[in-house]
Structure formats: structure tokens, C-alpha cells
Amino acid sequence: MDNSQKFNNSHMFKHIDPILANALNLELIRQQNSIELIASENFVSYGVLEAQGSILTNKYAEGLPSKRYYGGCEYVDMVEKIAIDRLKALFNAPYANVQPHSGASANLAVYYAALEPNDCILGMALDQGGHLTHGSKVNISGHWFKSHFYGVNPQSGLIDYDEVLAIAKTVKPKIIIAGASNYPRIIDFEKFRKIADEVNAYLMADIAHIAGLIIAKLHPNPFPHAHFVTSTTHKTLRGPRGGVVMCQEEFGAKIDKAVFPGLQGGPLMHVIAAKAQAFYEAGQSDFINYQQQIVTNAKYLAKTFLSNGFNIVSGGTDNHLMTIDLRNTPVTGKIASEALESVNITVNKNAVPNDPQKPFITSGIRVGTPAVTTRGMQEPQMKLIAELIANKLYNLTDQTIHNKTLACVKELTADFPIYENFLLERKASIKP
Ligand SMILES: *Cc1c(COP(=O)(O)O)cnc(C)c1O
Fold first, then answer.
1. Span 53-282: which CATH code?
2. In the prediction, which pLDDT does 13 show?
């Protein structure tokens, strides 16, 4: 994409200064014109954008609904109560706090509520699909707690629950974290709870990636098994960038105090309004269809990758994502993700289990379908995308294939437009 393009301030961002608006316009066009396969990304509705861009950003509301440290909170109280009630209903959760600014903040709130410094925690290893906040040394969770890890079986790519139990018995964690950023199969929260009970640990389920699938009953609900459940609101849930904590009733007061004043100051009421809107949308039947199509698309994409000679960690997927293991190809994760970016296909490089390459290089790419499914793409488009990827990666330096792929991506994204109300750049004339 040509980043030297300049715009008049005549497009979508009409109240923003031209220099900043230029950057925002370029990003809008990037989103409209590329195939987004980053598994953690999505495109929110106009409703979510409207709520998040609202005057609620002006309001300080430290505290909780009806228990605030500031005046004038009557209406933001309504907003936050709506968000809490909708969230609890979606997950059958006994208790919920919708204030965490992000998934990382939500996880930290649970640790702050449930643990003391130097307590032992057990999570999924980062290079096996876990998240930085599950005990990585470079994260506060690995610095302030004694972190231990379970992984996946190197042959099957699946979590080995007997191994999790064996590790738990040895390290005696105070909390076990069940959840992943890159695990393509079903997580058995009931089994995790049994393990937690055997070693007298809390169970925390981090459903950041799979929240939408859980709402649609395409993945088992962590309730009633987990003591704590954390999530982001911006991945399959398709809401604003943010986090939430849910828990069993008995931990509610502790979680609230951990979020504020423990970790955060004033809540982002405009974001909480956008969460409430996203939870409303997630309660509609369209959302169930959307989640079903995410999984159908992921399975179809995996099938086409396999028939094009790629290996996939665990052999396929049951959810919204997969990792292509590139070790039988000439490319690394880094080279593959850069090559695909050059044809406007966005993925992220990702370690495969026991990856021989460094984290900055990796031997895999992670691919997910939530964003392309939001655009309305279905099985025929998945097949085409997998073929475009295969063709590009097997012919890295072929300029004809490069140009053909770019043209195909342009056509495909034009056929499945997003944010048409804003700016259809491909039809607008842009002044240099
Ligand atoms: C994305 C993710 C997070 C962190 O969310 P942020 O909003 O980026 O802080 C935490 N846990 C898991 C499992 C995730 O996938």
C-alpha cells in the first residue's frame, strides 16, 4: 500500500486535523483493502463505534454503579448496569466486572484478588499457545509469581490433561489458568476444575479468544466450573478493545476492589457503553450464525491448506484459528508473514510447539477467520484465500504471481466491503 498518499480532510474523519486524519484514512483503507487473518482481530459494528466515540468519554465514574466517588453518575450507572447484566446473561455468570481496560488488566485483577506475591501459578506455556499474562518471565505474572507451565503433546498437538494433573501435583499451584491465544481445539474446563480441586487450586479460565464461540455454544462454557473467568471483548466477541472479569459470587467484592482501586483509576465509560452494545449484538440470533460461520470457515480453510501441502498443528481446527507449521516449506514464520503482508494478506508469525526458531522468526503462522467472516466471506472465499497464500509462499520471488495475487485480493475485498458508510477510497479520487 502506498503510504505516501495524502488526503484532504474531506473523508470520514471530518473533525480531525488533516495530519492525523491522513493517518486514520490510510488505516481505514488498509482495513478495507486487505484480507485480515489475524485471529484476534475483528471489525466492530457502527453501533459499537458510535458508543465508543460518544460523550461518555467525558465522565469520571470511579467506583461502581450507585457507589461512585463522583457526582453526575446517574446515567453512566445505567450504562454500566446494562453492560454487567448483559454479560452475566451471555455466560450464565454469577458475577461480573466490566471495567478492565484490556484482557491483560483483567488477568492481573484476578491475580491481585486471588494471590500473594511469590505464590505459584500454572498456565499454558507461551510457545505452546498460552498468553504472556499466564506466567511469562517478561510479564508481571512471571516476575511476581512462581510460574510453571503445561504444554501440548508434541505428537497430537493437544493438551494432555494427565500431564497437567501430574505437573499440578508437583508444583502445587494456587491458581491454574486454562486458556490460550493459540489453541485450535476444545478446552475441557470441567477436567481442569477436577485437576484444580485435586490440588486445592483456583481455576481461572481465560476465554479471550473463544468468548464468541462460547456464547454461540460452539465451545463449552467455563461456568459453572471456573472460579474466575476473564476475557477480552474485541476478539470473537466483536466488541470494543477491552476486558472483563466474571467470577463466582463469593469472589465478587475482591475482584471489584482489585480492579478499582487496586489496579485502575476511572473506568472508560465510553468503552463500557460500547461493551454493552457488543453484548446486545451478541445476544441476537445473527451472532450465533456468525459464530457458526467462523468455525465452518476455519475448518474449510484448514482443509484447503492441507490439500495444498501445508501441515497444520494438531491436524486441523475445532474453533476459529489454526497454526500452519511451515517446517516442510522453504519459508519461516517471519518470511511468510512479510511475504503475505506484501500482497495485503495479514497474518501473524507464530511459534509451533517446540519451535526450533527464535520467537522473532518462528516456524509458523497463525491464521483465524473472525474478521473475514464478519465481511461475509464463506467457504468459496476460504478456498481462494488458502490458494492465494499457497501460491505466494511457494513462489516468493515470482513477480507475475505477486501482481496477480494483489489483484485477486483487491477484487475479493471489493466484493466484501466493510465500513461503506465511511469512505469508499477505491472509488474516491485522492489528491497527492
Ligand atoms: C488477547 C489475549 C489476552 C490479552 O488481551 P489484551 O486486551 O491484548 O490485553 C489475554 N489472554 C489471552 C488468552 C489472549 O488471547
1. 3.40.640.10
2. 81
